[in-house]
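Title: Prediction job returns without error message
Component: structure pipeline
Severity: low
Priority: P3
Assignee: unassigned

Description:
Job completed but the reporter wants confirmation the result is attached to the right record. Sequence as submitted:
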Amino acid sequence: MIKLHGASISNYVNKVKLGILEKGLEYEQVRVAPSQEEEFLKISPMGKIPVLEMDGKFIFESGAILEFLDTIFPQTPKLIPEDSWEAARVREISTIIETYLDIPARRIYLPATRGKEVSPEIVEEVHPILVKGIKALQRVVRFSPYIAGEVFTMADCSGFAHLSVLDEELRPFYPDNHPLDLLNGWKEYFTFMKTKTGPALVEKEKQTLKKILARAKTKIE
C-alpha cells in the first residue's frame, strides 16, 4: 500500500496526489505538516512534504515521486511521455510553473495565509516576475485539452495544483491585473480539469481543509 505523507492544502502534496489518482493507484494519506523534528527528517531530510512511503522505504520531492511511480507501475497511465521530446516539454512546463511562478508567488501567499501582512512593495516587485513567467509558459502550453497536449501528464499535476493556488491566493493582491489572466486558455483548462474525478477530488479536499483551518483560526482569535 502506498502512503502519501502530507496535508491536502499543500500544492506539492496535491501535485503527487493528482498523479496517484490518474494512475488509479490505491493509497492512504497520512496527514502531517512539514517538520524539523528529527524523526521526520529521517524520511524527509529538508523537513518538507510530500513524502511517499512504500514497502518501508521513503521518497521525498514531488517530481522524484511521480517519476518513481511511472517506473514502478509501468502498466498505469504514463505521467512522463515515452517520446523524448514530449517528455522534455512536460518537464519544461513543470519547471516554469514551479520555478518561475510558484517560488516568487510564495513571497506573497505564504505570509498571507499565515496571517502576516504583505507589503505593497513586495506585491509590486513580484508582479513583473510573474508576468514574465506567464509569458514564458504561454509559449509552451497547448491546452488541447491538457496542458501539454492530448493526454494527462506530470505537467497537469504541476499545472492544476500550482496555478489554482496562484489564482485563488493572489487574487486579493491583484484584483485587476492578476498575471494569470494573461494566460490564454487557463480558465477553460481549469474548468475542464474539474470535470475529471481526480482533480475534482483534490480541489474538494483542499477547500474542505482550508475551511477547517479558517474556523480553527477564528476560534483562536
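Comment from assignee: result matches the submitted record. The radius of gyration is 17 Å.
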